[in-house]
Amino acid sequence: MKIIRGLHAGYAVFTFSLTFLIFLPLLMIPVYFPRQFHLVGVFNRWWARVFLTLIFIPFKNEYRAKLDKNKPYIFCPNHFSYLDIPAMGLNKVNSIFVGKSDMEKIPLFGFMYKKLHITVNRGSLKSRYGTFLRSCLAIDEGKSLMIFPEGGILTANPPEMTRFKDGPFRTAIEKQIAIIPVTIPYNWIILPDSSFLPRRHEMKIIYHEPIETQGLTLADMPALKQKTYEVINSELKKHLNEH
């Protein structure tokens, strides 16, 4: 069984690289024509669908509320697996990622990621503040943001989440836009952080009802973080009990 999973893992890495190279010319369009930034979400969606289909992982998006595709949001998903990135690429609302600057070191992919998305060095106060300013500017330009509020794959006991960072919630309050909690219940089973051997299981992404921030101030940020955490955590526990 491990041999088959190992072959599947090798095939998945090859497929990831091949599909990325195929889509790279398309992803360069919004790099050179920034006003076409909506194409980032479109091409991410195409790539994610092709990649996941080719590696035989079924997927399903579930939206608990109707979202306005022309309205900016901040999406906050739990983060237990490297598969969470293509999972969030399936989002029907065109979005850009706010992620760790380590992604910039990946050949070709890092160049594209830095140009199209927002990166942050979490160990640098200056970088974190710069990311906050760029995030606010992106929202002013009409972009939705995808931010993993845990700040990375940090938990030692999935599906238990670690404490949420302030960034997405401070930005949402500053710009008075809604937070969308997102639960990804099974990716830690399909591809845990401790292993590169994938397991067969349906991928599911649940977009919860928006949490509005109209009228909130920074004094409300702890409560906003806690509410978002509880929405995601409750759904994780529900799926764990059903699994």
From TrEMBL:
Family annotation (InterPro entries): Plipid/glycerol_acylTrfase
Keyword Acyltransferase: yes
Transmembrane stretches, start-end: 12-33
GO biological process, one term: phosphatidic acid biosynthetic process
Molecular-function annotations in GO: 1-acylglycerol-3-phosphate O-acyltransferase activity
A Pfam family reported for this protein in Swiss-Prot or TrEMBL: Acyltransferase
Phospholipid/glycerol acyltransferase domain sequence ranges: 73-187
Pathways per UniProt: Lipid metabolism
Alphabetic keyword roster: Acyltransferase, Membrane, Transferase, Transmembrane, Transmembrane helix
Protein name (Swiss-Prot/TrEMBL): 1-acyl-sn-glycerol-3-phosphate acyltransferase
The organism of origin for this protein: Fulvivirga marina
